[in-house]
């Protein structure tokens, strides 16, 4: 039989007798002034908010995962990525509204919540292990609040007004005894990735950082924050290297399906003077197929399979014949009939011009549109994940040998 998604219960790791309801909460207001609808803008093929939602859900540490928003489009994306939605009131949706005010409203409306894990949507390199280790500081070590920091080695100087004639002064160095980087531990700075705290701190103390408070240090490569457009291409490269792409190891992908109409082609049919039907194929896309064949991702050469209204029904025998499961398969589709496979496949993608129903089901959305490089882009994404998996395996072997 063909593989289908499994629905398993999530489990939290808490000390014995601790049955507090732990909720993840991502604040995603629609009125961002820096980048319009920044929270759902595509970053490396995934809506920005999707990166942290994927990490939150896969951490298995939460009783509930929420997105607080005032915008319909953000609500749709949040639900597609497995979150519940808190539709915030106009009072906490203003430019002047603080995160604390929004979180307080959420907690008052959800009295079952005991611990709130406020995760910033603009931190796309967050991983499940960050969440697990930080949250256990509250659930197992007894802290009231935990926030993320990164170590910076930057010398800071006092700002002076231009033309004032004042002299600047150093904040954290002695110019006469300037330390080398390797001789200085640096300073811990908030990186804005997350703020975890208890209900009591939020409601009764009006604090996100208070009581028995501690920090969780993240490495610089995971400390990515996006505020303005200029950050986007830099963040995209960082995410492709250090982002969390899900629990499945992409190296197992050994079979790739590309839908011809709308993916390999633009979806248009041209008629010749003699009445023959023709389609246009981009050479960049055919090169993508050759790249996969060279890396032995597609083990059986390049074949054309005729499918009907339900591609899953027609492709299941192909997968089973090769003794594979859908987690071993990469699939590129572009519309409603492809949704089932887009959900099942270990890696899945749609062109940039695919309808919303397909985009929400896919794990990767291409910048390029159908017939104009989307297939090549997905091929490069598959190979990148294969390379990442090999690097991870190498690191795992190093970790094991160190014991």
UniProtKB/TrEMBL annotation:
Pathway: Amino-sugar metabolism; N-acetylneuraminate metabolism
A single GO molecular function term of this UniProt record: N-acylneuraminate cytidylyltransferase activity
InterPro entries attached to this UniProt entry: CMP-NeuNAc_synthase, Cytidylyl_trans, HAD-like_sf, HAD_sf, Nucleotide-diphossugar_trans
Reactions mediated catalytically: an N-acylneuraminate + CTP = a CMP-N-acyl-beta-neuraminate + diphosphate
UniProt keyword terms in alphabetical order: Nucleotidyltransferase, Transferase
Any single GO BP term: N-acetylneuraminate metabolic process
Nucleotidyltransferase as UniProt keyword: yes
Residue stretches spanning the membrane: none
EC number: 2.7.7.43
Family: Belongs to the CMP-NeuNAc synthase family.
Name recorded for this polypeptide: N-acylneuraminate cytidylyltransferase
């Amino acid at each position: 039989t063909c593989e289908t998604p499994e629905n398993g219960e999530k489990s939290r790791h808490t000390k014995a007798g601790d049955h507090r309801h732990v909720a993840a909460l991502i604040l995603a207001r629609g009125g961002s002034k820096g980048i319009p609808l920044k929270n759902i803008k595509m970053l490396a093929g995934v809506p920005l908010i999707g990166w942290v939602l994927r990490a939150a859900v896969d951490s298995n540490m939460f009783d509930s995962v929420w997105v607080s928003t005032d915008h319909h489009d953000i609500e749709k994306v949040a639900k597609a990525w497995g979150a519940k939605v808190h539709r915030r009131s106009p009072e906490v949706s203003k430019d002047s509204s603080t995160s604390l005010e929004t979180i307080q409203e959420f907690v008052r409306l959800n009295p079952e919540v005991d611990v709130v894990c406020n995760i910033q949507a603009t931190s796309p390199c967050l991983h499940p292990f960050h969440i697990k280790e930080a949250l256990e500081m509250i659930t197992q070590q007894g802290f009231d609040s935990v926030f993320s920091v990164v170590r910076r080695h930057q010398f800071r100087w006092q700002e002076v007004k231009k033309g004032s004639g004042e002299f600047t002064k150093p904040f954290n160095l002695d110019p006469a005894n300037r330390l080398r980087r390797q001789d200085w531990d640096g300073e811990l700075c908030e990186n804005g990735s997350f703020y975890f705290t208890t209900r009591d701190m939020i409601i009764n103390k009006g604090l996100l950082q208070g009581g028995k408070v501690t920090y969780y240090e993240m490495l610089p490569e995971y400390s990515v924050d996006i505020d303005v457009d200029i950050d986007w291409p830099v963040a995209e490269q960082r995410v492709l290297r250090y982002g969390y792409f899900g629990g499945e190891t992409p190296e197992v992908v050994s079979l790739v399906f590309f839908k011809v109409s709308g993916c390999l082609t633009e979806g248009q049919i041209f008629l010749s003077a003699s009445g023959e039907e023709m389609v246009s194929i981009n050479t960049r896309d055919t090169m993508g197929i050759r790249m996969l064949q060279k890396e032995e991702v597609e083990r059986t050469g390049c074949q054309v399979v005729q499918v009907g209204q339900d591609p899953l029904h027609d492709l299941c025998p192909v997968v089973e014949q090769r003794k594979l499961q859908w987690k071993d398969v990469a699939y590129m589709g572009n519309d409603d009939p492809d949704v089932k496979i887009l959900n099942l496949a270990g890696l899945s993608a749609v062109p940039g011009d695919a309808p919303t129903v397909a985009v929400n089901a896919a794990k990767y959305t291409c910048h390029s549109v159908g017939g104009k490089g989307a297939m090549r882009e997905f091929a490069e994404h598959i190979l990148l994940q294969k390379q990442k998996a090999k690097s991870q395996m190498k690191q795992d072997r190093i970790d094991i040998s160190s014991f």
